[in-house]
Amino acid sequence: LYNPYMKKVLDLFKRTAFIDLAKLEKCVKSGRAGWETSVGQDEIQMPWYGRDFPMVERSEEIAERLKEKIAKYGDGGDLVKPLSSDILMVTIPQRMMEVSTGRDPALTWTMVALCQAVSEVFNLNPETDPDGCNMVRGAIYGRYPQSPEIHPGGPVFGFLKQSNVVDGLGRGFEGIMINHLVALADKRTMDGVALTTILEQGAQWEMGNALGWFERYHLLGSAYQGFNANNLVLDLVRENREGTIGDVAYSVVGRAVEDGVIKAQKNFPSGYKIYATNDY
């Protein structure tokens, strides 16, 4: 709760959404929208409703329209950034997140602003082209709200899943695709461990699991397991590279005994020992 760098990472994941203009352009042109799985994405095809809008070609105009609608609520930062000719990154203003009950503005604000931006750039309105409006809206939202989930693999997406499809209270930071985390860490193992630790601890605090009795457990777990304090993780990997999970557990206990972190609390005739910390 007090680490500014961890808070910055969690804030980035919560406030950020992405727009794939190439995907949106293709969907609108071919009349595809409202799929329910990320595999086929072709279960609904309505080419007669398709519209040929060169969104990638006019991505700068669309980005400017998005800025007009979103950035005016910000604090002067660049809230709409082009990552390439067809990918835009949108960051929701902090003041919106402060008055929100959750993380959903990253998707809702981005989708509404995108619908309006595309309509303005291509002179689209319900009076002159209602079917075109419905096609753009369907390509962005999918079947929502008739279906509770925005179509997976759609043109608008974020790091976190929408709140109404994640199991359990406070589990938002646990619902991120592992492939995204691997890519963000550039396949670097220890960087990936540190990043996922930040996200996991964000979820644990949000769920209330790190309060009271369990606070130290989570703090020590983050420091040693997540951030490799005292080089513990790498030392254990080196010691047990030919071993099993049981060997790792044995090494951890042995190191804790050597460092005086734990001591034998009770000995059994069989030789089995129960260990405890000195202050437990």
Write the layout of secondary structure elements.
Layout: H1 4-15, E1 16-20, H2 21-30, H3 59-70, E2 80-82, E3 87-91, H4 94-99, H5 105-121, H6 130-141, E4 156-158, H7 178-184, H8 189-207, H9 215-226, H10 232-239, H11 245-258, E5 262-267, E6 273-277
Antiparallel strand pairs: 1-3, 1-4, 2-3, 5-6
Helix pairs in contact: 3-5, 5-6, 8-9
Q: What can you tell me about this protein's structure?
A:
This protein has two domains: 4-165, 2-Layer Sandwich (Alpha-Beta Plaits); 191-277, no CATH class. The mean pLDDT is 89. With 280 residues, it is of the alpha+beta class. Helix 5 packs antiparallel against helix 6 and helix 8 (189-207) runs antiparallel to helix 9. The protein is elongated, with a radius of gyration of 25 Å. It is 46% helix and 10% strand. The chain contains eleven helices and six strands. It has a four-stranded antiparallel β-sheet. The protein has a two-stranded antiparallel ribbon with strand order 5-6.
Strand order of the largest sheet: 2-3-1-4
CATH hierarchy class name of the largest domain: Alpha Beta
Structural class: alpha+beta
What is the name of the CATH architecture of the largest domain?
Answer: 2-Layer Sandwich
General form: elongated
Kindly state the percentage of residues in helix. Answer: 40-55%
**What is the tally of beta strands?**
6
Strand content: 5-15%
SS element count, helices: 11
The fold-level CATH name of the largest domain is Alpha-Beta Plaits
Q: Distance between termini?
A: 24 Å
Secondary-structure element order, N to C: HEHHEEHHHEHHHHHEE
The structural domain count equals 2
Mean pLDDT across all residues, rounded?
89
The profile of the biggest β sheet is: 4 strands, antiparallel
Computed Rg: 25 Å
Low-confidence stretches: none
